[in-house]
Amino acid sequence: MNNAPLQITKREMQMLFTARRTWIGLAAAGIILGLAGPFDTDEALTVVPRLVYWLFVAAIGFFLGSTVSTFTAETLRGRGVGLWPSVVIAGALAGVVNLGALLLINWLVFRLSPSTPGYLGALSINVVAISIIIAGAYVSIQSNTPRETPEPQPPRLLDRLPVDKRGPLISLSVQDHYVEVATAKGTDLILIRLSDAMAEVGDTPGLQVHRSHWIATKAVASVRRDGARAILTMADGRDIPVSRTYIPAIKEAGLLPR
């Protein structure tokens, strides 16, 4: 459901709307257009109203076009249409929607009727063609730009430990009403349930191997079978038992041959 076209479009629009570079780009485009005064706007408006007009048109056109083109492209891609046919169709549809918005804006600002001779045809070609070009350029840039990988956040569980014990997690083990947290810098007991402690390991790859133990998979030094169970030797030399219930899990993680 999270990969449905509507959800993807919402995420994309939220990302664009909250990105500072989006607004910097729109401001730059609006100012350049406002100073250049294309489509006879230099004759119809003075500098300040012209800047306001083009800044508004740039913002409305960008967000409206991006919403329509993203939703359309994702819908078409989900139905097996190729990437570039989807981009062209999405760009054209976004151009049609933007054309309607621009006609409304121009009617409100200039009282310019769509029935004005030569106006609608020329504007339609320009807006639709520009929308297709922008959609194609955006996809090309996105496909050739490596996505930034967010830096992994330290596990919240470490905040419960003394500063000198905070390091890469090795294991969590139940000790009466406490959980022994083992890190590369030592161990410490904290008053917490194992399930709550596991919820605070963050991005640390790991798995529960016993009703009383959780381990960080990268901290496993070796594994040996012990009848129906198994024993994990951790990086700090301690042995952690794996109960029969969790044998399939450690096999799935590649810690034990299938």
The total of beta strands comes to 8
User: Structural class, from secondary structure content?
Assistant: alpha+beta
Helix content: 40-55%
Distance between the termini: 33 Å
Order of helices and strands: HHHHHHEEEHEEEEEH
Rg measurement, Å: 29 Å
Largest sheet, order of strands side by side?
A: 3-2-1-5-4
For the biggest sheet, the summary is: 5 strands, antiparallel
Supply the number of helical segments: 8
Assign an overall shape: elongated
Low-confidence stretches: none
Q: What is the strand content? A: 15-25%
Quick check: average pLDDT?
A: 90
Quaternary organization:
single chain
Number of domains: 2
Structure description:
- The chain has 258 residues and is α+β, with helices and mostly antiparallel strands.
- The protein folds into 2 domains: 5-144, no CATH class; 156-252, OB fold (Dihydrolipoamide Acetyltransferase, E2P) (Beta Barrel).
- Helices cover 51% and strands 17% of the residues.
- The chain is built from 8 helices and 8 strands.
- The strands form 2 sheets. The chain has a 5-stranded antiparallel beta sheet.
- Strand 6 and strand 7 (229-234) form a beta hairpin.
- Helix 1 runs antiparallel to helix 4 and helix 4 (47-78) packs antiparallel against helix 5.
- The longest helix is centred in the N-terminal third of the chain and has 32 residues, at 47-78.
- It is elongated, with a radius of gyration of 29 Å.
